[in-house]
Amino acid sequence: MLTLAGLGVALVVAALVLVPWQRPPAPRADQLAALRDLPTGQVEHARQFRSALRPGGWAALGVGLLVALALGLTPLGSRLVELAGRPFGGHWIAQAILGGLAVVLVADLVTLPFAAWRHSVLTRYGLATNGWGGWAVDLLKSYAVSAVIGAVALLGFYTVIRLAPRWWWAFGAAGAATLVVLLSFVLPVLVEPVFNRFSPMEPSPLRSQLMELAERDGVPVRDVLVADASRRTRAVNAYVSGLGPTRRVVVYDNLLREATPAEVTAVVAHELGHARDRDVSVGTLTGALGAAAAVVALYLIGSWPPLLRLAGVDSAAEPRAFPLLLALVTVAGLVFTPVQSLMSRRIEARADAHALALTGDPVAFESMQRRLSAVNLSDPDPPRWEYLYSASHPSTVERIAAARAYARKVGR
Ligand SMILES: [Zn+2]
């Protein structure tokens, strides 16, 4: 409990110090003014699209939660783990890896119809370009990637439990934090290429301008990488990922095709803001502390006798108790989503402010926001509850209002 309290305090302190809280959204009146300036047809179309996605999205969350609870808080899950280990004489390694993956697979499969429905909506609205074959291949690839990472994590976790039956929660917490850091390093070089091809941006005046921008910003960027996102979507986007030697700025090929050079510059300036403020490191650090705290919390809550009785197991440390742990993680994930979203929105707003200051071009920034919203069919001013629960970025109208506030401040 002391360790959990210590990790909790460290997490709160890290979030308080590293997240730019002193950056409240632009006044509501300015947001509404920005909304009025957007074409009504475009806003309506985006809202129809979002409404079409919404029922399936929430149903997937609800059904996913119900199944996780059904597997974790009844003996069903522990029986599934036993079943998966049976061909191997119930050996603990088979139970840990095959049983664990079987439980995760069942939880994934029950939400599969919702994922398919989502793809059909994306296709109907012309956002998806990959067809059902491409969709299925992506799905299988993501199952394979999850299975590999999951197998390593499960084997590591239950090995630690066997080696240190009394102190597994401490070693497990350290291991979970290490895994988060490791994944931040290797995801861009090992996992992202499974789904997309990345090539250095072709030499062009724009490329030289972007490299010059990065240099002026004091952010060492070896290259701007272009992802072949057009193979599955029409959406435009960009991101930074990786740490240290694996850090990269990635833009979608769609963005280069659809946006003006000034808009691309605004997007890349936003990404440079993430790099400069070390937002990937901040995410990794809070993620690592959160993962460590989660393991200790799982140990404490998962050892509570009434829960163990419900799950039909003797101890949280046996592989048969994995469905119980997964149920707890699922509930925690849903509970902490709004907190993570709030932190993310504040960090994104800081990257926006950085982009405005670096380019000094609020007009291009605003037209980039309009384009993102138009092409990606995002609701420029989404329903409040949905925004508070899960929006990772400020809304389009917030971002436009912030650009206008900047323009007023510098007198442009
Ligand atoms: Zn961003």
TrEMBL record:
Molecular-function GO term, any one: metalloendopeptidase activity
PANTHER family assigned: CAAX PRENYL PROTEASE 1 (PTHR10120)
Keywords: Hydrolase, Membrane, Metal-binding, Metalloprotease, Protease, Transmembrane, Transmembrane helix, Zinc
Location of the CAAX prenyl protease 1 N-terminal domain: 66-197
A Pfam match: Peptidase_M48_N
Active site per the UniProt annotation: 271, 352 (proton donor)
Membrane-spanning parts: 6-22, 57-76, 96-117, 143-161, 167-191, 280-301, 321-339
This protein's name: Ste24 endopeptidase
Cofactor: Zn(2+)
Coiled coil region boundaries: none
Keyword Isomerase: no
Flavoprotein among keywords: no
